[in-house]
């Protein structure tokens, strides 16, 4: 299969940044609160420097931000009207999150303001729109839309939705998650119903470092799930492993990470399996004005904010990670990326560049010096 390249935009938009992409602060941060939370600032500044030297610098080098005006500040910085005392949030963590949200918000506004980027759900291609609507879950009682991203705690969020709709008694019920039944998808609604909810409901999604998410999918699907080994693993081995082109007895349970990456390089991002499709293609953050974009790295605090924002009952909490869950550690990601032929990594990154850039994740460091440690 031939690789289709995404157009990341090289022309300046005449209309400026899209104001609808603004992600509101949780509450106004004044100078006093920042001084009280000054302990978090060094890490935030470090983060900003890393971002500037990573995805954003790459965009500048490619001319994507040439002559781009600085995005204006948010139009509304008022305190949200929901009861903050209902759920106790760490004020220092809250302040840091607001700064990170603003960095991400300005990046999204800048990139999505480009003329050739989608600005509405209905301007997407039929395939892109179908993918998006099939990944947005609806809760009418609490008036919110959630775009789920596989390998970014989406199973736990689906548990929360089922508790809110009365299907499950609580999020800790020990049952296997059914990812389709008892859930309302935006794709099942009529166009006018879709438009109304996109305009009036609170919209959120969660993101994760792109390569960490990819590695998590690889380890889970090819290391544990027989159906994926049979459907994808066997085909990958026949296609990319020497001497296995016509082999019949291929189980697909020993796909290497390099073979998986070679497979991804030949895949069209719009037709990928959802577990490794870029987050951008799943949730279309330029076409949908998300009110909040949470991070897997800040899952607990960001999830608490969302639950408070949607007015979830106090007994509804975000599930804790299962004891069997195997997290992708920094060391594990370092090992896999440094073991990968660097030519493959350089070819892979462009497929996920919008995930790195829009959500302000630095590009992975796989220099010889770094990988030596």
Protein architecture, described:
The protein is built from 16 helices and 5 strands. Among the domains are: 20-67 and 85-112, no CATH class; 121-207 and 276-309, no CATH class. It has 373 residues and is mainly α. It has helices at residues 31-36, 41-53, 55-61, 91-112, 126-133, 154-164, 191-200, 210-223, 226-240, 257-265, 279-283, 299-309, 330-339, 342-348, 353-358, 368-371; strands at 136-139, 144-147, 184-185, 202-207, 292-295. Residues 1-85 have low confidence and may be disordered. Helix 9 packs across helix 10 and helix 10 crosses helix 14 (342-348). A hairpin with a 4-residue loop joins strand 1 (136-139) and strand 2 (144-147).
Keywords:
single chain; 373 residues; mainly alpha; 5-stranded mixed sheet; 5 strands; 42% helix; disordered N terminus
Instruction: Note the run of SSEs as H and E.
Output: HHHHHEEHEHEHHHHEHHHHH
* Strand count: 5
Strands of the widest sheet, in order across it, are: 3-1-2-4-5
Task: Sketch the major β-sheet.
Answer: 5 strands, mixed
Radius of gyration: 21 Å
Distance between the ends: 37 Å
Give the assembly state of these chains.
single chain
What general form does the structure show? globular
Which structural class is indicated by helix and strand composition? mainly alpha
Mean pLDDT: 80
Give the proportion of residues in helices: 40-55%
What is the number of helical segments per DSSP (H or I, 4+ residues)? Answer: 16
Uncertain parts: 1-85
Proportion of strand residues: 5-15%
């Amino acid at each position: 299969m031939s690789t289709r390249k995404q157009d990341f935009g090289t022309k300046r938009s005449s209309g400026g940044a899209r104001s609808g992409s603004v992600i509101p602060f949780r509450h106004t941060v004044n100078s006093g609160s920042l001084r009280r939370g000054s302990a978090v600032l060094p890490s935030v500044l470090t983060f900003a420097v890393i971002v500037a030297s990573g995805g954003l610098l790459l965009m500048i080098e490619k001319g994507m931000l040439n002559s781009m005006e600085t995005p204006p500040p948010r139009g509304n910085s008022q305190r949200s009207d929901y009861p903050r005392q209902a759920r106790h949030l760490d004020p220092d963590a809250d302040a840091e999150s607001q700064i990170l949200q603003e960095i991400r918000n300005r990046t999204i506004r800048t990139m999505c303001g480009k003329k050739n980027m989608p600005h509405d759900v209905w301007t997407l291609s039929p395939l892109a729109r179908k993918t998006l609507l099939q990944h947005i879950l609806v809760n009418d009682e609490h008036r919110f839309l959630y775009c789920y991203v596989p390998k970014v705690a989406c199973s736990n969020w689906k548990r929360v939705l089922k508790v809110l709709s009365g299907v499950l008694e609580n999020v800790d019920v020990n049952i296997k998650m059914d990812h389709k039944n008892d859930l309302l998808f935006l794709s099942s609604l009529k166009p006018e119903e879709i438009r109304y909810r996109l305009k009036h409901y609170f919209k959120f999604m969660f993101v994760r470092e792109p390569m960490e998410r990819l590695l998590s999918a690889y380890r889970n699907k090819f290391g544990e799930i027989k159906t994926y080994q049979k459907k994808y693993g066997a085909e990958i081995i026949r296609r990319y492993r020497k001497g296995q082109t016509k082999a019949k007895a291929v189980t697909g349970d020993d796909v290497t990470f390099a073979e998986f990456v070679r497979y991804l390089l030949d895949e069209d991002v719009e037709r990928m399996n959802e577990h490794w499709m870029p987050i951008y293609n799943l949730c279309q953050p330029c076409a949908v004005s998300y009110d909040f974009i949470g991070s897997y790295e800040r899952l607990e605090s960001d999830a608490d904010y969302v639950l408070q924002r949607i007015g979830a009952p106090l007994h509804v909490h975000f599930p804790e990670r299962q004891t069997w869950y195997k997290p992708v550690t920094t060391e594990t990601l370092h090992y896999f990326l440094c073991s990968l032929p660097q030519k493959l990594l350089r070819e892979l990154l462009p497929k996920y560049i919008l995930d790195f850039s829009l959500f302000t994740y630095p590009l992975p460091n796989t220099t010889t010096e770094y990988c030596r440690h």
